[in-house]
Amino acid sequence: MKNKHLGSSFDDFLKEEGIHDDAHAHAIKRVLAWQIQEGMTAQGLSKSEMAKRMNTSRAQLDRLLDPENDKVQLDTVQRAAAAIGRKLHLELA
User: Fold this and answer.
1) Residue 74, phi then psi, degrees to nearest 5
2) pTM for the complete prediction?
3) Which CATH superfamily is domain 10-83 in?
């Protein structure tokens, strides 16, 4: 019995399964949440202080930091990046 996935890439597998775009979007959100959390840690920021810098609620920050929550607005991510001294860079590929 020959394995149909032998020699194919993981991206090819995800495309064949019809979940490539969802998996890619989920990975991006996880990385963003991780980068923001790492920036907070590096600066010794509590969630309360971070929310204050972003001019938002702690609950909104928790949603942003939740890697499973993909319902985050672009302006929220931009404010989080600015709060830790970073810039958000997006591009269409």
Assistant:
1) -60, -40
2) 0.81
3) lambda repressor-like DNA-binding domains (1.10.260.40)
